């Protein structure tokens, strides 16, 4: 079961909330789960539980607390509009400060990994470029990853994209990433669209989602998860 804790970003002293879950069984490391634009919704809670069940201590920061404490939204037009508004208002320095605070909370107990979805996929790529102490990251369907592809990386990253994603041209993103970082694995999931890690969503194919999760677990294991 996840509980809510508070953390403080060093760059501005802002206190934000995060879901926290202890690992089940032997601890393999820490995982920071970065939300989509819809806040810490049911799908984030499900993902936190999945990672804890795999043996990871998990943090899921509430990334838009500066805009609206405890923000969550439905996956409908109004929720999308509000989520985009908060994402645009939340400067990258704030997002990186919050992620760094999560890394600092976890790093004394083993390697720290980051996994993020949509908005979180972009933030995962950016964190791998800017934050200190990340062992590896897994970026799912980040809309700005192609534009950030040339950023130098401090941590290895794996990228997951849906072939049917109407918002993100998978082949273009893969080409941009691998032109700048040929060492980065980029996988395109043929049966899935945007948000395919969210079990039960229209664009989610369960086989694709489970394959991407296993690839992420294997990638983290290759970079220090015990």
UniProtKB/TrEMBL annotation:
Residues 16-223 form the Dienelactone hydrolase domain. Keywords: Hydrolase. Gene3D superfamilies: alpha/beta hydrolase. This is Dienelactone hydrolase family protein. One of its GO terms (molecular function) is hydrolase activity. SUPFAM superfamilies: alpha/beta-Hydrolases (SSF53474). InterPro entries: AB_hydrolase_fold, Dienelactn_hydro, Dienelactone_hydrolase-like. It comes from Caulobacter vibrioides. The lineage of its organism: Bacteria, Pseudomonadati, Pseudomonadota, Alphaproteobacteria, Caulobacterales. Pfam families: DLH.
